[in-house]
Design a protein that fits this description.
Distance between the termini: 32 Å
CATH class: Alpha Beta
Number of helices: 8
Strand content: 5-15%
Number of domains: 1
Shape: globular
Structural class: alpha/beta
CATH topology: Rossmann fold
CATH superfamily: P-loop containing nucleotide triphosphate hydrolases
Length: about 230
Amino acid sequence: MYERSDPVYVLNAPAAAAGRGVFVFGAPRGGTSMVAGVLRLVGIDMGARQGRGNNEDLDIQDARGPAGPLGEAGTPDYLAALDRMRPKIAERAKAQGPWGWKDPHGILYARDVTDLLPAPRLIAVFRDLAASAERVHRINGADRLDEMHSALMLQTRALDFLRETPLPAAIVSYEKALVRPERFLDQIATFCGVDVDAAEREAALAFISPERGHGDPDSPGWPRDGAI
C-alpha cells in the first residue's frame, strides 16, 4: 500500500535530550524562515535580537557579514568571519535551554562552528529551485537562472556535508511541510527534543500556512502579499 512521504527525514537520530544548538540552513527564500519561525513558536530560543522579519539571530548574522566572502574556506575574509562569529555562538552555547539560529547560507561555514554546539541538531531545508529563485527575482530583480544556480550550489554543499557528518541532522522538504503541517510539526519537535503544548501547536500550524507568510511570528499576517 502506498504511504505518503514525510516532510522530515532524519540522519543520525539524536538521543532524547533536547537540542542545544539547533542550526538551520538551506538557501535564500528556500524555507528556512518558516522552519525557524516554527522553532521559535515551540519554545526554542532562535536569538534575542531579531529585527529583519526573517527569524535570524542578528548578533550572529551581523558578526558573519556578507555571505559572498564565505564561498571559499580558508581565505582571510572567511577566517575573519569565523573569528567574529565563533565567540557569539560560544556565548549562546552557555544557555541551559534549547537554542539555535538560522542562516540560509550557513552551510558555507557549518564545518567550522558545529564543534561549539553542546547538543547539535542540524536542519537542512530544501525547496524547489525554481520557486526559491522566483521569490528572489520578485524581491530584487535577480536573474532567475543565476539564483537557481546559487541555490543548487548551496544544496549540493549541504548534501556533501550531510553525507560526512556524524551529527544528528534533519532533511526538511519545504513543500511537503506545507502539505502535511501537522506531521512536519510533530517530526521537527521530536527531532529537537521539545514538548509542544496546545497553544504552541495552534500557533505553529497557523504560521506554517504559506498564505500567512513566514516572517516574524509575532507579526500576524506578515507579509501576506506574495507570501510564497
